[in-house]
Every structure is written in C-alpha cells, then in structure tokens.
Amino acid sequence: MGQTDLTEPLGRDGGWAEAEPPCANAAFAELPVRPYDLLTLAVCWVLWPLWWLLGLRRAAGMLRHYIGATGTPRRVDAEALLALPAVRAAAEEQLARWRTEALARWNAGPAPRAPAAYPADSGWRDALITWRVHTDWWLALRCVEFRLTGTVRVAPDGSTAVDYRFAVAKSWNFDRGKSECGVPFAPFARLHETGLARQFTVTGEAFGHA
C-alpha cells in the first residue's frame, strides 16, 4: 500500500512565496499629462497594428491591452509558453530536482520500500525570454514568472512519475530606469502614471505529466 509524504514540499528552497510585485512606478493617473506623453501614446497606437501585420500577434495584443487602460488581467497560452526552449529548460530543471529529492526521501525510508507520493512546489521563479528565442514572446513578455506544483510518485522499483501544474503570473508594465535595445522604458511607464494606459497582470496555466 502506498504512502503520501506530508512534510515540506520538494523543491521549495530558492523560490519566492509570492509572484513578484508590480514595479515601484508612480500610481495610476498620479502624474499630470504632458505633450510628450500624448506623443508616446500615439506611437503605441501606431505600433501595435504594425506588430499585428508583421505576425507578432501576442506582442500586439499585450500593447493594445496596455493602452486600452482597463487594467484587467490577460491570459496567455501557457502551453505555448512552456514549449519555448528557455522556459522549458527552467521547468525541466525543477522537475529533475523534484525527482532527485523524491528518490532521496524514498531511499531513506524503511525497507521494503512501498510506493510513495511526494508533494512538490518550486515556488515562484523566472525565466528570461530573448529575441533570439522567440521575437513575439520577447516583445510580449520579455521575462516570465512561473510556478510548478504537483506530485512525484515513486514506484517500488525506484522509477518516478510526475504530475504538475505550470502557472504563470506576471505584472505587465515598464520599469522606470530600465531599457531594451537602447529604448528607455520611462516614457512608456509614464503612460500608466498619467492614466493614458494601465499596467495589468498576465496569467495562465498548463498541466503535464513527465
């Protein structure tokens, strides 16, 4: 008869308890609108349909949602995101860690060893997406915060199987003081700070077996 380990989940060390909070920009509509803010907004209204025509549909949708200024959460295709090499590698690293820790606990148990199940939780972690990995996802997210939770099952012969949930939670905004490819983020951050756009949360989830 199998047993379930109810101690601390596997793989928790090193992860964050909560997804990263929004950046420390000024609050929504806290600053007065300046003429150059309207120019920045006009650039965004031209940019998102251009991206759409170029096939950068995810990036276009994110930018359009930002300047739509609703602030409502937006879901992404987490399965497609998990398929990206950089994200997949980060997830596989966690799954491998789960297996190693599960076998260590299982081998430390009394013999004969029965099947066992171990809860696992990576905590919140991040994975960087570069333009070389996928241009559309790079423009859409640039970096993604993810969390893997699940169960590792160890059979009597020591083989392992993992059922997991891949969750995404990211604050979509522009951090003041940062830039990308020489383009400063401050003018785009001001769109939120002046109420011309609004940052929002990106969410998504996917399930898998390994």
Concise account of the structure shown:
The chain has 210 residues and is α/β, with parallel strands linked by helices. It is built from six helices and eight strands. The protein is elongated and about 75 Å long.
Observed structural traits:
single chain, 210 residues, alpha/beta, 8 strands, 35% helix, elongated
Walk me through what this model shows.
This protein is an alpha/beta fold and 210 residues long. The protein has helices at residues 35-53, 57-68, 78-82, 85-107, 135-140, 186-193; strands at 3-4, 74-75, 116-128, 143-154, 160-172, 179-180, 183-184, 200-209. It has a six-stranded mixed β-sheet with strand order 1-3-4-5-8-2. A two-stranded antiparallel sheet has the order 6-7. Strand 6 (179-180) and strand 7 form a beta hairpin. Helix 1 (35-53) runs antiparallel to helix 2 and helix 1 (35-53) crosses helix 6 (186-193). The longest helix is centred in the middle third of the chain and has 23 residues, at 85-107. The radius of gyration is 21 Å and the shape is elongated. The two termini are 23 Å apart. The model has no long low-confidence stretch (mean pLDDT 92).
Total DSSP helices: 6
Distance, first to last CA: 23 Å
The count of strands amounts to 8
Give the mean pLDDT. Answer: 92
Helix-residue proportion = 25-40%
Q: Overall 3D geometry?
A: elongated
> Which structural class is indicated by helix and strand composition?
alpha/beta
Radius of gyration using CA atoms only:
21 Å
The largest sheet, given as strand count, sense and whether it forms a barrel, is:
6 strands, mixed
Order of helices and strands: EHHEHHEHEEEEHE
* Low-confidence blocks of residues: none
Strand content: 25-35%
Arrangement of strands in the largest sheet = 1-3-4-5-8-2
